[in-house]
Write a structure and sequence with these properties.
The chain has 231 residues and is mainly α. It has 3 domains: 32-127, no CATH class; 130-178, no CATH class; 180-231. 69% of the residues lie in helices and 2% in strands. The chain has 11 helices and 2 strands. A two-stranded antiparallel ribbon has the order 1-2. It is globular, with a radius of gyration of 21 Å.
Length: 231
């Protein structure tokens, strides 16, 4: 603990090593979905699933460690949702292969790095109205919430929607419909969310972590989830 205290200096943020470790574990559990989600989206473009998972994990690990050790800021980084869908469903088909699309991603990263080093990125960000920057964050949050609700069966995608849209791209169809709390996974997800929200409001230490662990334990007990068979 003493070594971590000297390295991280949590007291400067009014925190402790124990609080930082709880926050790190909670952050990992709430971010881990990106490992499967990002790989699943990129698989639509032909990217092999297992290497995509490994690449997503490696990029998140390196970026997050650099944020902590070099920038001295407790912020976790991982692949962004949204751009992966653009690459999978628009860029890769347009350029002919996912390998070429990934080459464009590398060039995009080099360009952004150059903008950062030249100080132009901050100028561009300041040029965007504050309300629009806030709206972008809200939109990403709503998108992630929708993914969570679909996975939890609180919201269901009608079976014929994707097929109908493929045949009639300009058609208007209900993209999603309401789920049913009679299903165990939806009931567990809603109960876990409510319990976590209540713990957060009551300022219970490790509220999100407790909610995630409690929901997982309940899902295992009811047979909704299964423990991994191996690493």
């Amino acid at each position: 603990m003493d070594a971590l205290t000297r390295l991280l200096h949590p007291e400067r943020r009014g925190s402790t090593v124990a609080a930082e470790l709880r926050g790190a574990l909670a952050t990992f559990l709430t971010m881990a979905y990106i490992l499967v989600t990002n790989a699943s989206i990129l698989a639509a473009a032909g990217v092999p699933f297992a290497p995509a998972v490994a690449g997503t994990a490696a990029a998140a690990a390196v970026s997050s460690i650099l944020m902590g050790v070099v920038a001295d800021f407790p912020l976790a980084l991982a692949s962004g949702m949204g751009l992966n869908a653009v690459i999978a469903f628009h860029v890769a088909p347009a350029v002919g292969s996912w390998q070429t699309a990934m080459g464009l991603v590398v060039l995009d990263g080099v360009l952004v790095l150059a903008l950062v080093l030249l100080g132009l990125r901050e100028a561009v960000m300041r040029a965007i109205p504050h309300d629009l920057r806030v709206a972008i964050g809200v939109g990403i949050g709503v998108f992630l919430a929708l993914i969570g609700m679909v996975n939890a069966r609180l919201v269901v995608v009608p079976p014929g929607t994707l097929a109908a849209l493929a045949q009639t791209p300009g058609g208007v169809f209900p993209p999603v419909g309401p789920g049913s709390l009679r299903t165990a996974d939806a009931a567990i997800a809603l109960a876990g969310t409510c319990v976590t929200a209540a713990l957060v409001v009551r300022r219970v230490p490790g509220a999100i972590l407790l909610g995630v662990v409690g929901s997982t334990a309940l899902a295992l007990l009811l047979g909704v989830a299964r423990a991994p068979e191996g690493a």
